[in-house]
Amino acid sequence: MAAAVMAAVVVLAAVAAAATVATPAEVRWEVSYLTLEPLGRAQKVIAINNQFPGPLLNVTTNQNVRVNVQNNLDEPLLITWDGIQMRMNSWQDGVSGTNCPIPPGWNWTYQFQLKDQIGSFFYFPSLGLQRAAGGYGPITVNNRATVPVPFGQPDGDITLFIGDWYTNSHIELRNMLDDGKDLGVPDAILINGRGPYRYDTALVPDDLQYETVGVEPGKTYRFRVHNVGISTSLNFRIQNHNMLLVEAEGTYTNQQNYTNLDIHVGQSCSFLVTMDQNASTDYYIVASPRFVSNPQWSQVTGVALLQYSNSKGKASGPLPDAPNDYYDKYYSINQAKSIRMNTSAGAARQNPQGSFHYGSINITHTFVLMNEVPLRINGNRRRTINRISYSPPETPLRLADLHNLSGVYTTDFPAMPSDMPAKIASSALNASYKGFLEIIFQNNDTDVQTYHLDGYSFFVVGMDYGLWTPDRRNDYNRWDAISRCTTQVFPGGWTAVLVSLDNVGLWNLRAEKLDNWYRGQEVYVKVADPLGYNITEMIMPDNVLYCGLLKDRQKPQIHESNSKSSAQAEAGWSNRLLATVMLVVAAVIFS
User: For residues 106 and 14, which has the higher predicted lDDT (pLDDT)?
Assistant: First the structure.
């Protein structure tokens, strides 16, 4: 009993320390439509505080965050936090399996901690193709002062959002998918929400607003680049400048220079770029499509300007070369394999990233998840994983579990491919807490896929073309594989990842391509705590929203003043944290 009590004290101290490491970051976001002309014609975009892209959430490792979101749209809204792991707290993940949406005219406060994370991430609206209209913005998680960054302090920090864009609204795009149509070639590639610089008078209209990045000669800047598009892999490059890759989705990388890098949908990277070229002229910043065959794609390229402070003229001439072949799959896969973890650098903690010897841990379970070309199910064109096309139930899975509701979803999602008839279902994959999971993504389609797992980062240990077989484990990188939350899977190929299941909850595993995600290419991974829900996990937040089978529990929302809401939110956060601590202590003492 004495040992148990001592263990409980240690747990109590650790959790209490986590709650007090930094002053909470508190922001209020008004999400609304804004009429802009990114391509020369008026269209509604989703803006946050009248900004498109949205405002920066600039925080530090272990800091607590409260984001009050006011939904001024005409449809329900959820914000999800791509790459933020929500430790012990899937209640804040902002996807349909964990949260009821924020109704139009309502607000809701997200409360979470940036536990043991650093790096470059982004947020976006997760429902109904809304990201195709904007609503996204950057998250920067800085190192604590006690943990050194493995490179010198940059002279500036620059965020670039790249992504394909349509002049059709997200509602029109949604209707196209519902009608069984493809979205087709996008109208442009935007950079920070702006159209291309007029590098070609025949392709780019006059008077478009384009992005200009101002820099000083001789200085070094950190560029954080996020592909927030709908479905297009992009090659990113800066004319005549080397890009030193230093971080990818929260992991410091082996530092190596690239003249260009493929960044797939949902992925984030950061580079150091030194302004060491002739400063008398501007330079092109380019994001161009990859893995496309339609000749119309050559007319869709994002172009911004890098402008030295003493520049005398605009950039001119041809754009910097992309990889030789637009469909050079070997170039891209070899480039992807070259991105490795910096094993000697600390990140969220002082101990080196390589001190977790993932390559020596025994695999406890394997999921082989296969996608294929679109399938016709019940007359509808759908996307599948292992021939299951996910359909979100009206009641979030996490709430259904808490209230012991049956029939909302099943846990019989197949862990291996089969030739069973394709079907639409609401089902989840069961996974064991504290297990060590191997996931094989098998892409039997003709397009690049990207997959993202909420709640975790995973080690990308292998990728290749062809069909994965168990003997391919002999080729895994078991020492310095990059740890990230979003990975590409090349057409007709596979990607293998390893993940330590140390975060209880229900976690969304999805295709980051919005059209595929909308059509059902997703599943939830259920990592249940053997001690019971709300023991290791944070308890349900006081402000939880109800919907579906639980809609009668929802009370009308009373809009409080900002100061009162903030005080109530702080009290609620403290109460939930204290309750979680007490439950953990009780579990340790009486186990």
Answer: 106
Q: Which residues of 350-368 are buried (b: 16+ CB within 10 A; e: fewer)?
A: eebbeeeebeeeeeeeebb
* pLDDT for the residue numbered 207: 87
Which tokens in the block code for residue 395? 């009641």
For residue 569, which amino acid is it?
A: A
For the stretch 246-294, pLDDT in tens is: 999 999 999 999 999 999 999 999 999 999 999 999 999 999 999 887 8
Expressed in angstroms, the distance from the first to the final Cα of the chain is: 10
Beta carbons within 8 Å of 221's beta carbon, 6+ residues apart = 154, 155, 156, 157, 158, 215, 272, 273, 275
Structure tokens at 294: 């339609």
Question: pLDDT tens, 434-470?
Answer: 999 999 999 999 999 999 999 999 999 999 999 999 9
Residue 393: cis peptide before it, omega within 30 degrees of 0: no
With CA atoms as reference, report the closest residue to 212 among 224, 194, 229: 194
> Which position has the token pair 């892209």?
53
Q: Which of left, alpha, beta for 161 (phi over 0: left; psi -120 to 50: alpha)?
A: beta
Look at residue 27 in the predicted model and tell me its pLDDT.
Answer: 97
For residue range 319-368, list pLDDT tens digits in order. 998 887 655 668 999 999 999 999 999 999 999 999 999 999 999 999 99
Q: What is the mean pLDDT of residues 39-50?
A: 96
Residue with tokens 């939110």: 569
Angstrom distance (rounded) from CA 79 to CA 121: 13
CA separation, residue 117 to residues 143, 156, 220, 249 (Å): 8, 21, 24, 10
Sheet arrangement for strand 79-82: 57-60, 137-142, 119-125, 79-82
Longest CA pairwise span in the chain (Å) = 79
What are the structure tokens assigned to 46, written together?
A: 């989703």
Count CA atoms closer than 13 A to 119's CA, side-chain side.
31
Q: Quote the CA–CA distance of 130 and 48 in Å, as a whole number.
A: 13
Residue whose structure tokens are 């190596």:
256
3-state secondary structure of 353: helix
In the sheet that 268-274 helps form, which strands lie side by side, from edge to edge? Answer: 188-191, 156-165, 220-227, 268-274, 243-248, 251-258
| Alpha-carbon gap, residue 316 to 404, rounded angstroms | 64
pLDDT tens-digit readout, 147-190:
999 999 999 999 999 999 999 999 999 999 999 999 999 999 99
CA-based Rg of the chain, rounded to a whole angstrom?
23
Contact 390, 425 (CB under 8 A): yes
CA gap 393, 409 in Å, rounded: 7
